[in-house]
């Protein structure tokens, strides 16, 4: 299961709340992966991808505005990581997703969990 841990708290409440929401999205992806009943998960996967795209754009914008408001010195390198994440999500080939749904959802989960873990603990913790 994908669970929020207090280690992920950076001390900026609105950003911490947004990070919790990213964990909720990852948790839904995990539930889809674990669903042995559904044969065709494509619509669920696409819905999760769409929510992830929309929410990360919102979250990254919010986080970047906060970093600028405090004069965060590593803003540009941080923004590059955000842009790379969005580019990766936008480059997903939905035809391939449809062909290999279980493989894709596992790869998506691995990407999301590793990115969130590395980014929050590595980059976002430095904001505060």
Automatic annotation (TrEMBL):
Organism for this UniProt entry: Thermosyntropha lipolytica DSM 11003
GO MF annotations, alphabetized: metal ion binding
Database matches in Gene3D superfamilies: Hemerythrin-like
Family membership: Belongs to the hemerythrin family.
Segments forming domain Hemerythrin-like: 11-127
InterPro entries, alphabetized: Haemerythrin_Fe_BS, Hemerythrin, Hemerythrin-like, Hemerythrin-like_sf, Hemerythrin_metal-bd
PANTHER family (alphabetical): BACTERIOHEMERYTHRIN
One Pfam family, short name: Hemerythrin
UniProt name for this protein: Hemerythrin
Coiled coil: none
Keyword terms: Iron, Metal-binding
């Amino acid at each position: 299961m994908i669970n929020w841990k207090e280690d992920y708290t950076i001390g900026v409440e609105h950003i911490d709340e947004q990070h919790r929401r990213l964990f909720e999205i990852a948790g839904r992806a995990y539930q889809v992966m674990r669903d042995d009943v559904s044969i065709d998960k494509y619509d669920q996967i696409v819905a999760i991808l769409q929510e992830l795209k929309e929410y990360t754009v919102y979250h990254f914008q919010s986080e970047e505005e906060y970093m600028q408001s405090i004069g965060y010195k590593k803003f540009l390198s941080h923004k590059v990581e955000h842009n790379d994440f969005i580019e990766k999500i936008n480059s997903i080939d939905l035809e391939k997703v449809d062909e290999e749904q279980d493989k894709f959802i596992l790869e998506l989960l691995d990407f999301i969990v590793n990115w969130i873990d590395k980014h929050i603990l590595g980059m976002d913790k430095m904001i505060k």
